[in-house]
Please model this.
Amino acid sequence: MKALLRESFYLSLLLYLCSIQQSFGATDTITTTQFLRDGDANISSTGGTFEMGFFSPDNSENRYVGMWYKNISVQTVVWVANREAPLTNRSGILKVIKPGLLVLVNGTNNVLWSTNTSRSVQNPVAQLLDSGNFVVKEAGDNNPGNILWQSFDHPTDTLLAGMKLGRNFVNGREVYLSSWKNEEDPAPGDYTYHCDPSGYPQTIVKKGSDVVYSSGPWNGRYFSGTQNSREGSFYTYGVYSSTPEVYFVYKLTSLVLVRLTLSHNGVLQIWILGDRKGWVPLVLIPADKCDMYNLCGAYGSCNSQDSPVCGCLDKFVPKNSDAWNRTEWSGGCVRRTEPNCLQKDMFLKYSHIKLPDTRNSWSNVTMTLEECKNICSKNCSCMAYSNSDIRNGGSGCLLWFEDLLDIRKGPSGGQDIYIRLAASESDSLEQSGEKKGNVLFWILPLSAGVILVFLSLLIYHRRRKKALELKKNGCGGNYKMDYNSGNCAEEFEIPLFALSTIAKATNNFSIDRRIGEGGFGPVYKGILEGKEIAVKRLSRTSTQGENEFKNEVVYIVKLQHRNLVKILGCCIEGEEKMLIYEYLPNGSLDSFIFDDTQSKVLDWPKRFHIINGIARGLMYLHQDSQLRIIHRDLKANNILLDKDMNPKISDFGLAKICEEDDIGAKTDRVVGTYGYLSPEYALHGKYSVKSDVFSFGILILEIVSGQSNRKFSHPDHSLNLLAHAWKLNKEGRSTEILDEHLGDSCSTPEVERSICVGLLCVQQCPEDRPSMSSVVMMLNNEGVLPQAKRPGFYIERDAPDGELYAQSQTPITILAAR
Model:
């Protein structure tokens, strides 16, 4: 008997050990025989974007099953399974059981959390997809329609790309976000985020049962209460409505990771993963006081640019004047004259309005605006109407049948709405117009006459003054006076755009149109005359200014080459100065070569193509263009990539014309960027075309290695990138600097030649560096290259990640030589 018990014990122990063995080494799938135990290796999605396992929030000993982004230094949890039933120790096991349930059990085999399903399968598995969706399905069945359960139907505080936020009318399920209770407790908190289909679709944030934020209805392009267009650099979004379901969803348009979160204090944020593996907030809601739901009450209008922010719509007055004066706006406003439906009320158009709360609205997507007006006119309960879709000139009908709540007004954004008013308001409008007309009948002619006389005198004075100055300075022919510099400047033609045109093209410079930032200022994406554009806007805090602005306009207008960015025009109004360029969808080179994810896109043929393109662009600047230009700020983020990954040199704000010889010039105002300046320029203020050659050499080494010259470090020595590359080249091991992501895509002779050319370009003495025409020839021929001399080791590896910008009255900034 004892022998039998002993044998049974060893058999049980063996089975237990086997089960432990099976629990290790999981990839992306959990099966009925392979489970996830707390302490085992995490499971990872096939593409390596997400991983799952057990975790504890900061300052908490509780254990949860969760999902987070893989290979990001700061753990970013996007989903939690047992958020209301934490484990109190490390005894948890997550497993799949028949007929297709996912269960979490503790050390005493009690089920703490489980999924449910109305179907059963013979061989269920749980799989983590690269979208971040954790699904339970039949093994080998890849039909999305046959999924038994999925985490996308049960989100926590994070909306991932492809996840539907909304309601399914067939099964009655609503998918919505719920905040964590606090930063240490993932249990459901006070706030929830919904796509509300009770009227025309809109998104809302609730605190308990109370609405605290409404986006305004979806109008085909964006939510009417936001300035954020669906055409972003990293994602697009939209609301989709059909008989079975209504939902809000966003999709990624680039390799950049994006997530939407609802914080424990009710803040909505859209985050993008920055180049340095840190999350950067792109959109923040509430953005201002007017994002507070119904702050100004019925028919009240909130404008964040006014003080106080609340006011009544035109033809409306405060319902309680005393309360309104005390900034108690919740009572809202009422019509100055109550409408009388029997007297055929009028409808007044209000523009740039965030459309009111649509939870008690009615819509028809096929009607015209005129049909919409007719229906509203015949129904005395109808308070307002508008187009439901603003695309293609407007279409569809949206009607409101109760007081209009949660209205805000601004200089741009929003849309038109027509609100019911008493017919007598029409008479007051006509009488007011008639009185104004009588006054204007006399004022306008007199004013016009005075203005014409004044302008005539002003034009005569300016022309006479200009002619005298041109004569004094010897200007004539195709030259004109530059009044800012006092010199003659060659005439150039460039289209000028109005500020209102550029503001409309960029959705009033909305934050989701912002695609970059430089020394000049922010850069926005826009749509102008049906074409994508990039708008570079001079910042008031910019270290660059009018000289750089004029510099870029004058030079780039005269330069036409396939490897130079093309300027389309400029905008100069008041203090606003903007440059309008062709839009290059792949952004700047640094966002590819210095990013672990993006760098995988650039195989060696693409990198060699980019190196050659930059070389040809520089050769054109130095010797083939009508102006011989020294760029003076050549760096990875000033190289832009079009849709075919063709490189284009940009940012000519610091450029200078050079003479026919290569002697160059000297300046006390050293400008440029740490890590790219040539030694003679940084130390002595001397620049020439060979200064650009030095910067290009650094670019080659950065493209080949995938390492930034300013941030390079090596575990075995303290050399910077140039010294490291030169040392390896002398030892015949130059290809060891190669980016690890390049793998088998490399042509070794091309790589070695590129590294050698790069080292020739960064030699200490300018006279030793090749010209750009020689560089182009060396890159594309198989001849023997000379041995590079010692590079200029002046760059400090730990220099600040900013721009060197010494003013003319200060000494030149000296960088320590190496």
Observations:
- The chain has a mean pLDDT of 82.
- The longest strand covers residues 185-196.
- The chain has 13 helices and 49 strands.
